[in-house]
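Q: Given only this backbone (132 positions), what sequence would you predict?
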């Protein structure tokens, strides 16, 4: 079992996309809830709802399908900062993904946010992942 919840979230989304599965179930943690809220706001997923099974709390994500020619869906994702090697960046050094077509999700002193929000607020932080 892995302790890297962000990598588990990215892998679950990528695997569900490969087999064209519509719903994805992931463990609900503070970080995964914030990341899925960002994915919902940015238009990468359709819906997020919380589900409880006994003492376990899960997030059920509804992914966008490519057949409907949606505007945005996740084509690839990459984990940047890992538990064994944390990667930090100032707001000037945050990478731009495909000229702004993708997003970088990072953790800052003001919460988890996208690269655009961090540049606008002029704050840096730990780079979690890249989605495009």
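A: Predicted residues:
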């Amino acid at each position: 079992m892995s302790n890297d919840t962000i990598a588990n979230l990215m892998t679950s989304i990528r695997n569900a996309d490969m087999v064209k599965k519509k719903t994805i179930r992931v463990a609900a943690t503070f970080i995964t809830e914030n990341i899925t809220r960002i994915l919902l706001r940015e238009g990468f997923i359709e819906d997020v709802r919380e589900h409880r099974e006994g003492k376990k709390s899960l997030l059920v994500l509804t992914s966008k399908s490519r057949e409907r020619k949606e505007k945005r869906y996740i084509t690839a994702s990459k984990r940047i900062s890992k538990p064994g090697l944390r990667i930090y960046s100032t707001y000037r050094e945050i990478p731009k993904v495909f000229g702004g077509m993708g997003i970088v999700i990072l953790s800052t002193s003001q919460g988890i946010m996208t690269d655009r929000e961090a540049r606008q607020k002029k704050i840096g932080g730990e780079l979690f992942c890249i989605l495009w």
